[in-house]
Amino acid sequence: MKEDNQQGQQISSDDVRIQKEITDRLSEDPKTDAGKMEVEVNNGEVILKGKADTEEEKQHAESIAASVPGVKHVENRLHIDIGIAHTLSVLVAQISADTEKNEGDSENKRPSQ
C-alpha cells in the first residue's frame, strides 16, 4: 500500500510506519525537541531536517532514528540552533570555572596556623 507524502510522492506503508515511529520516539524523549525536527523516509532511508539545540541532541536524534526497525540509513541534516540552551550551558560552565578558581584562590590566601 502506498500513500502520498507532503511533496506528492508516493511512500510505502513501511516508510509511513518508520516515520511515525521515529517522530513518536523523538516526541517522547526528554532529550530532544521534536517540534524543531522533520523526518523524511524513502525506502528505509531516513533524513532528519530542522534544528537541534546541541551537538548531543543532534546525535541523540540520529541514534533514535537508527534504532527503529526497518531503517537502513540515517542522513542527519539537523543544524545546531545556537539559542537559549547553548547560551545557558556556556554560562553555567563559566560560572563553574570561576567558582572553582575563586575557591582555590581563597584556600591559598588563608593564614598559616
User: Separation of termini?
Assistant: 84 Å
What structural class results from the helix and strand content?
Answer: alpha+beta
Beta-strand share of residues: 15-25%
Order of helices and strands: EEHEEHEH
Biggest pleated-sheet summary:
3 strands, mixed
Helix content: 40-55%
Number of strands: 5
Number of domains: 2
* Rounded mean pLDDT score: 86
- What's the CATH first level of the largest domain? Alpha Beta
Radius of gyration: 22 Å
Unreliable residue stretches = none
The spatial strand order of the largest sheet comes to 3-4-5
Reported by name, the CATH topology of the largest domain is: Histidine-containing Protein, Chain: A
Give a quick precis of the structure.
This protein is α+β, with helices and mostly antiparallel strands and 113 residues long.
Model description:
It contains three helices and five strands, in the order E-E-H-E-E-H-E-H. With 113 residues, it is an alpha+beta fold. The strands form two sheets. The protein has a three-stranded mixed β-sheet. A two-stranded antiparallel sheet has the order 1-2. Strand 1 and strand 2 form a beta hairpin. The mean pLDDT is 86.
Task: Name the descriptors.
single chain; 113 residues; alpha+beta; Histidine-containing Protein, Chain: A; 2 domains; 3-stranded mixed β-sheet; two-stranded antiparallel ribbon; 3 helices; elongated
